[in-house]
Predict the 3D structure of the following.
Amino acid sequence: MNCQRVQEGFIDYQTGSLPAAEATELRAHLASCPVCQKEWAALQEISRKLDQLPSETPSPRLSEQFYAMLETHRREADSLSPFAFARSRLDRFFETLLPSRPATQFAFAFILLVAGLLAGARFLRPPVNPPINSLDQAELAALRAKVDSMGRLVTYSLLQQRSTSERIQDVLATMNLARPDRKVLTDLVGALAFDPSVNVRLSAVEALSAHANDQLVRAGVLSALPRETAPLVQVAMIELLATVRDPSCAPVLIRLSREETADRDVRDAARRALAVLRTPSPSGISPNAQLNQPKPTLT
Amino acid sequence: MTVAVPQFRVYPCAKAVNLPPAPVDTPSDHELMIAVRAGEINRLGELFERHNRPLYGFFVRLTNQPAASEDLVQMVFYRILKYRHTYRDEGLFSAWIYHLARKVAADYFRKNSAVPAATDPAELTAQPDPAPAPADRAAKDDDLEFLRIALARLPLDQREVLVLSRLQNVEHREIARLLDCSVGAVKVRVHRALKELREVYFKLRHERHAT
């Protein structure tokens, strides 16, 4: 045993925790090694002195302060809120009721699960899908049909979509027909009402003006007029209505002539048209009256 | 040359310096702490009676500030109350209380950032020792006074390990857990600290006798 190892064992030797065999070896070494003897003696001396160091005693203040703090805490704990009190009671209740060991907890949970499954299988009936009302079914079918037809319509109109110039060509082509059928007139009124292009709408007005005497045409123009946004088309429409002197269009014209937001040309045209409406036609019978009144039947 | 008979003494595992031998039916620290945790706050009084003096000694040796040490002891017991729910069933009360005490001491040193471990002798003489001056004591106390000063001059980590192992009689195993190191490392530190203490002590005595 060398000196370093012996000195490493000093602390354990001092506390008596060195194994007996090593302690014997250490003693043997100490008996023969003056260096280690000196070291050991020094260690023992300072240890003894440390042992003699009196223990410090706190003043009574410490005790007083501690018990004051304890009292404060106790009072706080006593004045526990009723909720916390109920909570702690509840916790304690479940603590006594439920198992505390994990294995038992697991078993308990498993038993609960099995019991729940059995009870469910025993007492619950499988859910039955409620029968669908025949009325609902009919409604559903109708809706489905409507959606289908709408889809077809959209496809159709997409197919119908053609360029502006082509649409104008179509409109102008109708002007060559001396006696267009109702389908053609309906198409023209539709173009006037819905075509996105101003030029097409203007051409439509132009084409329709040849057939202004037709009740269908007048009604179509009249209904499209309030929706129209382009002043140019509006003026053309007003002029068309003025030429046929239809009194039924007076309210629309009055509204237009007074509308502040409308274009000035439009208002002027409306006013002019109203003036024309008020002056009796040279024939004395308005074309409207002529058309509306059934022809006297010969008796 | 005479061979000095090596003397050795065996430290009892728990030297009952501060507390009388406990009767059999006296609850252990652990049982008391479990009761405190369960809400019997008054039982903390018993724990206080058992531990306030050792704890106070620990803080006095560590900080050299008797007045502040009382506050620190109070702080430890305050934290025991505050964190009583964190005390674990398998916990060792003495380990826990020293764990809290070390944290309290660390907080104290941080706040009074000038660490009182005045290793510079010049600085130490500038600070009057709070205890009565050595000259005021009886001659037989002189040696102990030197020892106290020597202990105060040790670096904080050496002083701590000495106070824990030799004055508080905390087991090496427990100190190792507290300081988060191996038992062997604790023994080495204790040995080194004892050697250092002895050197400082003899230097002090030598200076004293020289004057």
